[in-house]
Write a structure and sequence with these properties.
By secondary structure, the chain is α+β, with helices and mostly antiparallel strands. Among the domains are: about 25-120, Immunoglobulin-like; about 130-255, no CATH class; about 270-395, no CATH class. The chain is built from nine helices and 22 strands. Helix 5 crosses helix 7 (about 420-435), helix 7 crosses helix 9 (about 475-505) and helix 8 (about 440-465) runs antiparallel to helix 9. The protein is elongated, with a radius of gyration of 31 Å.
Length: about 500
Amino acid sequence: MKKLILLILPILLLLQACEKSAPVNAPELLTFSFEKANNYSLPEDIIFENLESPHLEYATPFPLHTNIFKATFTVSEGCIVTVNDVVQESGKTSNDFSSAVEYTVTNANGEKKVYTVSLSVNYRNMTGLPILFINTNGGKPVADKENWVAGEYSIMGADGEYILENNELEIRGRGNTTWQNPKKPYALKLGKKTELFGMPKHKRWVLLAAYNDKSLIRTDLAFHLAQNYSNLRWKQGGQLLEVVLNGQYLGNYYLCEHIKIDENRIPDGYIIEVDYRAKEANGDIFFKSKLSQLNFVIKDPEVAKGSAEYLYAENYINTCEQYLKNMDSANYMKYIDLENMVDWYLNSELTKNPDSGFFLSVYMNISADGKLYMGPLWDYDLSFGNQVYDDGAGSDNGYTGFTIRNGDRSKIWLPAMFNNPAFIAMLKEKMRVIAANEAEIMAFIDKRHQELKKSALHNDRRWYLMCPYGSSNETILNAYGSQITYIKEWLHGRIQWLATNIEAL
């Protein structure tokens, strides 16, 4: 009997202990978030409010610049959290959210609850700018400037409604030094001719990245000056917008018309570019002129070296340069449209664009009527006091000086112009118009500033062009505002200096 009592007693004590132990909690997430403090690419905390559902979905009102995030969470006491059997530490463990992530909460009894966490972006009305979505077939990357990659594009308007959806296109890289930057420029070839943002129908378009232009507006501003204060033969248009490639936000871009011979672009003739870097090894079809020794690349139409078309262009430029060197206005004006030369020169000098000193991206159009028209304009990311490196163009960031006129590479083309009374008279007249409209130009800059605030914020969070990683929204916006202030102050000084010194010619 005594042995039986001794046997029963431990069992009773064990049962009592079990009755007194705390119950096992259900496996549940109590809180779940992505804190800015642990995820510096985020402009603000992401907090999931409703945790009753096992499907946790959050659409951010801002772009996600990475797919890697650290979650902060709390769970019921005694529970652990795993992802793919890896134990998670709140605020420390990173996961890839390019697709949904399953968080498994397990209690002491081995009971489990799975939460599926998804992150996406609500792009509607994100920055107030249109958004160009490009999806390549199979998500194939755009890796070089030579090979076109097929895909589709859609455009969401500034109002959040789609303008175009699921249209065919091809995309490839473009640019020279700009292609080496982290933020890449691209060339687009649409499946069919399409009107975009009021610009005439065409297949070929360009996405400029403005990596060297922290203001994001220099090309747009140069085009605005041309549109409103010149009679250039062709004044291309452009549109500031956001670009999302294969679901990845790429930032602010400038969509503009590609330079081509076409009824909706440059209507006829030859397009020639002065480019010091031209090489036959790169496939460039070019000739070096006899007098200036500049490289003249025949960009459009396609011609064969030594063909009749090639020899015509070569002879045309050599003859023109000979008349210019001789100051023979009676003959060179048979070739050069004088007002066009004034407009091109004034835009180049006003913007103090280093490339325009017959260095590179200096375009000319030998028209079907036998006249040479300077332009169209191109490559303005280093203009308006933004020469971020000395590449031999002989410019600087100050607003004084006749930089384009006095450049070493301009020695054949511009001295004859400044020896021509008709050129000087027209130059003075057009400069007076610009000076009289300085208030309108500044108002245009202010308008762009207001339109681009949100875009500049997200663009900088993507590329850190103005501020270091992890900077606050206020810091970035203040830095962007200082860029706009700099351009306005610089351009005011430039207008005043040119107005005074051109009038004195």
